[in-house]
UniProtKB/TrEMBL annotation:
One of its GO terms (biological process) is translation. InterPro entries: Amidase, Amidase_CS, Amidase_dom, AS_sf, GatA. Coiled coil: none annotated. The gene is gatA_1. The active site is at residues 79, 159, 183. This is Glutamyl-tRNA(Gln) amidotransferase subunit A. It comes from Gluconobacter cerinus. It is an enzyme of class 6 (ligase). Allows the formation of correctly charged Gln-tRNA(Gln) through the transamidation of misacylated Glu-tRNA(Gln) in organisms which lack glutaminyl-tRNA synthetase. The reaction takes place in the presence of glutamine and ATP through an activated gamma-phospho-Glu-tRNA(Gln).
Amino acid sequence: MSGMHDFTLASARDALKARKISAVELTNAHLDAIERLDGRLNSFITRTPDQARVAAKAADDILAKGEGGALTGIPLGIKDLFCTNGVRTTAASKILGNFVPPYESTVTSNLLRDGAVFLGKLNLDEFAMGSANLNSAFGPVENPWKRNGSDAKLVPGGSSGGSAAAVAAGLVLGATGTDTGGSIRQPAAFTGIAGIKPTYGRCSRFGTIAFASSLDQAGPMARNLQDCAILLESMAGFDERDSTSVNTPVPNYEAALTRGVKGLRVGIPKEYHAPGMPAEIEALWQQGINWLKAAGAEVVEVSLPHTKYGLPTYYIAALAEASSNLARYDGVRFGERVKGDSLDALYEATRAAGFGEEVKRRILIGTHVLSSGYYDAYYLRAQKVRTLIQRDFLNAFEKVDFLLTPTAPSSAFAQDEKPTDPVQMYLNDIFTVPASMAGVPALSVPAGLDAQGVPLGLQLIGKFFDEETLIAAGHVIEQAASFTHRPAIHAGVSA
């Protein structure tokens, strides 16, 4: 099975259809890598090797007949926020530690329909609340990248840190993520992979455990944008079971890769030149501008004046929704029950034992901003500012076709460098949150390494339902950057 970990999702798909490799071989190679490396990375919460081998054998039978879907035989990992029929789904929380859904989320149903082989459920920040994957009840995830000359354990970003680490380390060919305020894009940047947050409503939220319902959006994570495009086409689509799902055709995203950017206008938001941003990130941003300009794009400075309100607005709106969504986990309707002498005592004991520190903090803040006397001052005002943030993007897109920014204000930091102030941790999302608040699509592509040999990403933000232009522009950056680096911990490297 030598060379199995050199495949991208696209090249593996083509090799499977040409019968150059078998789905069983491909799946076993990745299961072996998980067994060998994940004890260190901790990217999986639940592994499903037996189910995966059965699915791979079925895929080979289908491929032998010259049939099959876009993903037949492709080994994927699923963020443990998507309900999977008969397979434990925890949201990385003790309160759902033994929850086995009797149904399948729409996103995972779509992937299974197209022939994907699921290798297991991937680790995350508890209920998707975090930017470093340090908040999981099942332990932190380690980034497979290392700083030059250091063995310090780096964070993979969050909340989709398990998905990012598994893809970067070659344990899966692709993974699902969810993005509420940057939880696909920031970990993609931290681990040197690609990730797409589609337009809100492009992918169904049915069967995805909610954090903030007006912000959560599923998306793909993979080694490059071609792989992400293949996954997104499978994941996306209208679903009448999700009231926020938008009934609009799903394009051939893979075909958009070769469109180029000649004649397009790229906007550079002046407000994203954040004070104190490392010089190497500024330099990479300028390099990205030069790459797009060389490919024929026109560079235009734009203003997003309400950007500075993005983070505080996000952490009011998102936490208010989290407080409401997590109220169901009380030991009566949902969640592992801890007995008490009264109903109130049962609630208190269940939630105290079941929720982690960060989840409790966010529930308390969210409950506060929704409480009598504070609703108008905080939540209602945040919704008004959110409208202004969205209007900024709409005004900018009257002048340009897409925006280019850094993905994150730093590269991956070490697990023991976690800020003690939660607000400092929240600042990791400073560049990703505004696009989430507006509901517009955005993606991250790896574009270089910092001085310590750790990946840095560039972010592209686009118009509603125009993921194709982002994929085309992102592919231009991918080709120019020629990011072929691999992390220190990788399935294709001896452990």
